[in-house]
Amino acid sequence: MNYELRTKLSRLAGFLLVWAVILFALAAAVYGTAGDGDLLAREMRRHAPPDTTGLPETEYTGVGRMTAGYLTGREETFQYVFSDAEGRRFVCFQPHEAAHMADCRGLIGLAGRLRWIAAAVALLPAAAGAVLRRRRDFTGGMLAGLCGAAAVFTGITVWALADFDGLFVTFHRLAFTNDGWLLDPRTDLLIRLMPVNFFITLGTRILGWVLITGPVLLGTAKLFQNGKAERQRNA
What we know:
The protein is mainly alpha-helical. Helix content is about 75%, strand content about 5%. The chain has helices at about 5-35, 35-45, 50-55, 60-70, 95-130, 135-175, 190-195, 195-235, and strands spanning about 80-85, 90. The protein has a two-stranded antiparallel sheet. Helix 1 packs antiparallel against helix 5 (about 95-130). The chain starts with a helix and ends with a helix.
């Protein structure tokens, strides 16, 4: 393999490694957040208290855990039923709300599968970088990937700060093939339990986990670079 081709492949391998790791971090953060029932319950209670939802405070934990279990496949049915002190039975969610959550379950399941696919894919460029033995070019590819990721996530962050509602609507129109996500807060408990601020908090948490990968990858790239320089000085 000639020098120029090895250089290009090494840079490409470094670039792809960065994006595979970022994709893993994103998918893992989404799946982990969706599967944390206590977290969901806490944020529901925080952003949608009982006086706005009509749901007794004692039932938030049950709803949060049921939602997390359903989204990650541990529960088969999206429904929560409770009884009050007088023995009256309440069914929380209507069929169209359950239908929308079935769509959400598909997305979360995709994230769950994608995290392992991304982790496996990350091994390929890492192995390619080791075989090609062009550490400086591999590091250059990693830095290019990090710069590209920084530009993408900065753009999303600016959009969210300037017009979160627009970002929210755009995401839903891209993620769902129907309008089942257009719920009515006057009649649908689901949207009252999960207002915009609920999603802002969880989205910020997910973004934070993804951003942690940036310094880790940058530190790894610098380590490679410094290791190469050290060997050259000792040669």
